Amino acid sequence: MATSLQSFISQLLPLYPELVIITIALTILLLDFFVDRQHKAMLGWYSLIGIVIAASMTIKLAGLAGSFFGGTFLLDPFAAYFKLAFYTACGLGILISMKYLDIEDIHRGEYYALMLFATSGMMLMASAGDLITLYLGLELMALSIYILAGFMRSDSRSNEAGIKYLLLGAFSSGIMLYGMSLLYGISGTTNLNGILAFLRGADLANPVLFLAMVMLIVSFGFKVAAVPFHMWVPDVYEGAPTSVTAFMSAGPKVAGFAVLLRIFAHTLLPMQDHTAVILAGMAVLTMAVGNIMAIAQTNIKRMLAYSSIAHAGYALVGLAAGGRDGAASVMLYVLIYAVMNMGAFGVVIMLRKAGVRGEEITDFSGLGKTNKAAAFLMLIFMFSLTGIPPMAGFIGKFYIFKSAVQAGMVWLAVVGVLFSSISAYFYLRVIMVMYMYEPKEEFSLVQSPALALALAISVTAVIVIGVYPSGVLEFARASIIGIL
């Protein structure tokens, strides 16, 4: 009996990080009954302990590369890279949430549990070696995010955000399942390596195969907020609690690109000539709509929502370029984007007070005179999002556009640079409001050790990666070897 139990436990070794995250989430739901409202932040710190344990396990398991559970679960450097990115997004999300939940009077333990459940879903997506595993992970992530978007039950905007995201997400999941069923019908397998082996000897002119590919692009285009599947983003980002918006803009987007890389840079690699054209066109549309629409926004959450769309367009440039350099540039870019965007949302939360301040760009008026530290942090994040050296955002865009040039898509790189130049208008406008406008009112910013720690981590990462990018870039290049 003991031997059988030990054998069973050893077989679960590849799933240890996921099991740790899920176990911590479940125990939080139980502990929540015994923690009073004044000490709910303890559950957040407990969540962070779980994330650190899972991260250490992921690093230890990185050398245990292979396929497990009948090929449905993969352990490789690619999955490890993205899992570490998910831990970063979830950890920063929890840190910036603790004080915000108190301000909005929605500090409940299930909030942290849902963030961990969403993270576990992302982890399954990164390690998926089968279409069914991929779908299960995606739905676990999506259902958790739907609930988080509508977490402020007494706020009509939050309710609207949750409902819109749920309804449109259900449509995208249906389209995805249809595409997966077509792939299964053609290839006779749901295993990603099995589908790749089939495609290498298949007739790529098959219209059903092309339809399956398009359906997968549509469904994952929704997940990463690519045009024309972006309509939900501004309303959901604006209506959801700001801490949820920050997490939503980072974690799920990174997970979406992890799957896009696994599917289009590996499984559907024989169809690269077809996918590159579609992805390049989608990248142009996404950069155009995201940057142009952001110019007209006065609400900073909506501005960052359209900014998120534009950055998805930049990442799609690397995906369209293909090859090892293109894939590595996407991996580098989404990590940088997650860190700098969550930092920007952290500063937005610093201005929050009783649900009436911090969302309009004019609320930042004179911040450079009333709180120099907060204004400087926002300046760093806005410079990085614009792509101004020596910030990390510049490094990310440089390698994305470089991969397009190396792939012979010089025109796509030029278009990306042009739209990146347009983005300077709405990012630098925030800086102008902070430093050139007079303060609208006298106010004190939100004080929170957890929020301060999140901002310190974000700004340090943005500066360090910008000045010394080779470490993360080499990590990304080494991680992509497993799928290319």
Structure report:
- Helix 11 packs parallel to helix 13, helix 13 runs antiparallel to helix 14 and helix 14 (323-350) crosses helix 20.
- By secondary structure, this protein is mostly helical.
- The longest helix is centred in the middle third of the chain and has 32 residues, at 156-187.
- It contains 20 helices and two strands.
- The protein starts with a helix and ends with a helix.
- The protein has a two-stranded antiparallel sheet.
- Helix content is 76%, strand content 1%.
Characterize this entry briefly.
The chain has 20 helices and 2 strands. By secondary structure, the chain is mostly helical.
Total of helices: 20
Assembly state: single chain
Largest sheet: 2 strands, antiparallel
Q: Assess the beta-strand content as a share of residues.
A: under 5%
Catalogue the unreliable spans. none
Helix content: over 70%
- The structural class is mainly alpha
| Structural Rg | 22 Å
Number of β-strand runs = 2
What is the H-and-E element order? Answer: HHHEEHHHHHHHHHHHHHHHHH
For the largest beta sheet, what order do the strands appear in spatially? Answer: 1-2
Mean pLDDT: 88
Distance between the termini: 43 Å
> Which descriptor suits the 3D outline?
globular
